[in-house]
Amino acid sequence: PTPPTRQSGHRVDALGVGQQAEAVTKATAILRLARAGPRSIWLNLTCPLQVRHLSKSRSWRMRLVQFLTVGDPCGMRVGLQQKEAGKVIDLNLFDSSLPRTMKEFLEKGDVAMETARRALDCGNNALCHSAIELLSPVTNPDKVVCVGMNYMDHCLEQNVAIPKEPVIFSKFGSSIVGPYSDIIHPTDSNEVDWEVELAFVIGKKGKHIKKEAAMEHVAGFMVANDVSARDWQMKRNGKQWLLGKTFDTFCPLGPAIVTRDALSDPHNLGIRCRVNGQIMQESNTNQLVFKTEQLVAWVSQFVTLFPGDVFLTGTPSGVGVFRKPPKFLKHGDIVECEIDEIGTLRNVIN
Fold first, then answer.
1. Residue 148 contacts residue 171 (beta carbons within 8 Å)
2. Global pTM value
3. Tell me: the pLDDT tens digits for 191-215?
4. Which of 58-67, 83-92, 287-296 has the highest mean pLDDT?
5. What is the spatial distance between Cα 335 and Cα 313, in angstroms, rounded to a whole number?
6. Other C-beta atoms within 10 Å of 228: how many?
7. In 10 A of CB 43, how many CB atoms?
8. Which alpha helices (H) appear in 135-213, and where do they start and end?
């Protein structure tokens, strides 16, 4: 039946019957698209509006980066790596309201992530790698949490028992550098060593996080090199690990934060380290003693985790200090740390 309308003389104040029918038809079409799944609805926009189902388990499938552009006086920017095209989408050009640091971006939660996903779908504002400098994907974290003796093969090479609880230590945030930055060899150390590691970044604040909910607090995964001055770690400073682990430039990270849904399985990835092209470490993250969920649950018993916090999950066998004879890094060496599906760090010892 035709809805009643208020009339003033011969003029109809409400929508006419034809206009009402047209509006209902358009609304019905949009609802059908939304129910059918993600589709692009073109609304005379530069980019398609993506209709997405809302659920507790969102799918992002992104590679988040921080970078500088050549000659840009405005400083740090946040972006997305296009895996296929090999370019970086400038998220701050796509939406100027987005934060310009990864830590602040992660603090915005799903709102920022959804904007980034739209930018990736759009594909505009893409910059060539020659026009940018990739930085560490996250800087100035509240915490850099490290895990010792967390690979079964690493425990075996040291001839020590596999830990029953995670062995936790830390590095200072000032040790973080980018995926291609130089590692500065300290003048007062003769035993600088490599450690390729799977790292992850917290994306959601939490305390006393249950193991079953832990992955909801993880933004994504990176490659890390837990560079270590073994003389300071094992012989000096009362054999406390901190100083030997936290010299400036001793924590290369990157090349991107790869969201967890973009990886087949973060706990079944090939992991390796090369020095001057020679493989020094070769293992798989399935050798981890305590995996991501266990580490988040364990550490959050003691401290609140904040967006941007970085976890280094431990290194496999093959480090220099346990070789016979021991082998350490020297000026000019090129260290490459690589994890399948995530990427490669390449740092020169300077």
1. no
2. 0.84
3. 999 999 999 999 999 999 999 999 9
4. 287-296
5. 19
6. 27
7. 9
8. 152-158
